[in-house]
Specification:
Blueprint: H1 4-21, E1 31-46, E2 56-70, E3 75-84, E4 88-89, E5 92-93, E6 96-105, E7 111-117, H2 123-129, H3 138-141, E8 149-157, E9 166-173, E10 187-194, E11 200-210, E12 219-232, E13 236-249, E14 254-267, E15 272-288, E16 294-314, E17 320-332, E18 338-348
Antiparallel strand pairs: 1-2, 1-18, 2-3, 3-6, 4-5, 6-7, 7-8, 8-9, 9-10, 10-11, 11-12, 12-13, 13-14, 14-15, 15-16, 16-17, 17-18
């Protein structure tokens, strides 16, 4: 359920964008409004959930409405609303504020971003993967960290070796996602990006979070480390990603999670490509033993997706239409398969 403050902010932002759209064009100088949508027709082929057996139909999984403003040579800003098939209210999907930030960029390439923005966690891997319309990246899918945080981010080049070889990104955030702060604890993120050669990119990063002692789930802290290696060319793009996370609880208990992902896309022609991905994750959960004590127990989960992508339209200013028949499979080692066939339309405008 979305918080009242987020709802009011969403409505205010939506009204502001709507008013801006009907103003004369001269008033919109330096402002660009764009959108992104994922639309599906799906068929549930197998599922451990009996209520979903044979389910099929049309769906929209995600909608972004974004306003980007160039305020000066140094300052820019973004406001973005998101609605999806999981942000449901009494009248369908409820929009919320996904991005809301002010960015300052120096001529040297160093910059500061203040507001709700993406932490330096999977920006690079998501760009290389390039198929969020099929699924989120490994770390986001497994909720290693939120895709957004409210705080201050700094990034820029490290003047070592040739230009573009090294970049840094650090951030301190509330660790509340897109919601307002409600405790004194914070989360710190850091990432190092290395581009040793034009097709290759490597990142190494992690984050450290604290939690108040009076939380209902008794979490006291968490840390994670991750690495990514990607390759991008005109005909092929692929990557390997891995992470480790430890979450600490009261009474000196801890839960570990680790995972790896491999993916690739091969463009057979400029318009038609084949995409595939496989993830495997080891996750610990608390389970009660005979004497009533809860101890960590590990299990393995698998995920795969694949399909054929058709570039129906590639226009200027980032507009595009991609049509992607695909399948999505997920299964725990000790569970039943969840298999879904989809026809996905990814629309960027």
């Amino acid at each position: 359920m979305l918080r009242t403050g987020s709802r009011l902010a969403s409505l205010a932002l939506l009204l502001g964008v709507s008013v801006g759209l009907v103003r004369p064009a001269v008033a919109q100088e330096g402002v660009r409004v764009s959108g992104l949508a994922y639309l599906d027709y799906f068929v549930q082929l197998a599922t451990p959930d009996s209520a979903r057996e044979g389910l099929h139909g049309f769906n929209f999984r995600r909608l972004y409405l974004t306003a980007d403003a160039t305020l000066s040579d140094a300052f820019s800003a973004r406001a973005r609303l998101e609605a999806s098939d999981v942000t449901l209210g009494p009248r369908g999907s409820t929009p919320f504020v996904k991005d809301l930030y002010l960015r300052w960029r120096h001529d040297s390439g160093h910059g500061l971003t203040l507001g709700i923005t993406s932490p330096p966690v999977w920006d690079v891997s998501e760009r290389v993967w390039d198929f969020r319309s099929l699924e989120r990246t490994l770390l986001e899918l497994n909720r290693v960290a939120s895709s957004r945080d409210l705080g201050l981010r700094a990034d820029g080049p490290i003047p070592v070796g040739r230009e573009g070889l090294l970049r840094y990104a650090v951030m301190v955030g509330n660790n509340e996602g897109v919601f307002p702060e409600d405790d004194v604890s914070k989360r710190v993120y850091a990432q190092l990006e290395v581009r040793p050669a034009e097709p290759l990119v490597f990142t190494l990063g992690g984050s450290l979070a604290g939690y108040d002692e009076d939380r209902d789930d008794e979490r006291t802290g968490a840390w994670d480390a991750n690495a990514f290696l990607g390759y991008v060319s005109d005909a092929f793009r692929g990557g390997v990603e891995a992470f480790y996370q430890q979450t600490d609880y009261a009474d000196d208990h801890a839960l570990d999670m680790a995972g790896a992902s491999v993916f690739g896309t091969f463009w057979v022609t400029p318009e038609v490509g084949v995409v595939g991905r496989f993830d495997r994750v080891r996750r610990e959960t608390f389970q009660e033993v005979d004497d009533g004590e809860e101890l960590p127990v590990a299990g393995f989960e698998n995920f795969a997706t694949g399909g054929v992508a058709y570039r129906a339209h590639e226009g200027e200013r980032g507009t595009r239409v991609r049509l992607i028949p695909n399948v999505r499979w997920a299964k725990a080692d000790d569970g039943d398969s969840d298999l879904q066939a989809r026809f996905t339309a990814e629309v960027s405008f």
